[in-house]
Amino acid sequence: MNIPASDPESPASPSGPLSRRDALRAAAAVGVSSLAFEPVRAAQGTGTGAKPVPLSVPSPDPRRGSVKRYPMKKSINLWAFPYPDRMSLKECLHLAKAAGFDAIELNYDLDNDLSPKSGAREYAAIRRMADDIGIEISGLFSFLFWPYPLTSNDESKRARGLELAGKIAQAAHDLGVENVLVVPGAVYIPWRTDHDPVPNDVCERRAREAVGQLARDAERLKVRLNLENIFFNGFLMTPMEMNAFVDGFGTDRVRVHFDTGNIAMFQFAEHWASVLGPRIQNVHLKEFTKKGTDFSLETFRPLLDGTTNWPAVTEALDAAGYQGYLTFEYFHPYPHYPEALIWQTSDSLDRILGRKS
């Protein structure tokens, strides 16, 4: 082995006694060499005839992540970020990109960057910003379907909900985004005290009328209305009901936004994925735990900290031919060091999708 020459800052010359620094460097080189060639020695002995070869690539380990690589894209909902209180939209997009996400799902509300206060010019600027950062927009989402349900007993709320849904679709068009999440209706909304229960048949009739009207605009705007499954609202409680409802519109502009967590209280995401099949246009990944008895929004967890059978879910989505976005949806940014949730979620998705095994 060649002994490294002295550091220029060392008092020893290349031909003189080794300095302490030289000795440490030489020892380190020997150690690294031994580690690199250890597999060769184990196979061929330690004689001078052994030829060093590169270390072999380790086999995929199912303890680290899926051993099968899936083609779906990583996305994250804006709710996981401390927006707008502690981070701007631009900062959120930069962080999502830095953490390794392919896309981000943006939320429409009554204020902030995506709202009735914005128009085509503002949305074009947001799109340019996302393109410059190098991150896709996987879709638009809104919580406004709860205070203004499309099936409310209050006619003024139904009208406002329909108006806002139209604005969201227009915003998606202006952003160049295809996917618009729609909550088609609700028999019951457990987290609101101002919602009177709606009879099931009335709920379905009103939902069909509302979505049918929105579908005409969706054809013009070239966007898709993706109906979300939500166990808590008491409407479209099985994948067969969802299929019949969606198919009834006779247009590919009405599809399904499948949420893995929203039916996890008593059902299983992998079963829904198989039955919904090619109707799935977009996906929310929400972790859920069946171990507790708190049947509220607090039951949802960070990815992998629950009871969801992720290998079965991804395999069912893959079998259905789904290759779109998997968007992590979570309602609570971490109060301290909120970037941690973004990086942890990216790592979890890498493991679910077989990018890290």
Give a quick summary of the entry:
37% of the residues lie in helices and 13% in strands. The chain is of the alpha/beta class and 357 residues long.
List the helices and strands and how they pair.
Blueprint lengths: L19 H25 L28 E5 L11 H10 L4 E6 L11 H14 L2 E7 L12 H21 L3 E4 L17 H22 L2 E5 L10 H9 L6 E6 L9 H8 L3 E6 L1 E2 L11 E2 L8 H10 L5 E4 L10 H14 L5
Parallel strand pairs: 1-2, 1-10, 2-3, 4-5, 5-6, 6-7, 7-10
Antiparallel strand pairs: 8-9
Describe it.
The chain has 357 residues and is α/β, with parallel strands linked by helices. The chain has two domains: 57 residues, no CATH class; 280 residues, TIM Barrel (Alpha-Beta Barrel). It has nine helices and ten strands. The strands form two sheets. The chain has an eight-stranded parallel beta sheet. Strands 8-9 form a two-stranded antiparallel sheet. Strand 1, helix 2 and strand 2 form a beta-alpha-beta unit. The protein is globular, with a radius of gyration of 27 Å. The N terminus is likely disordered.
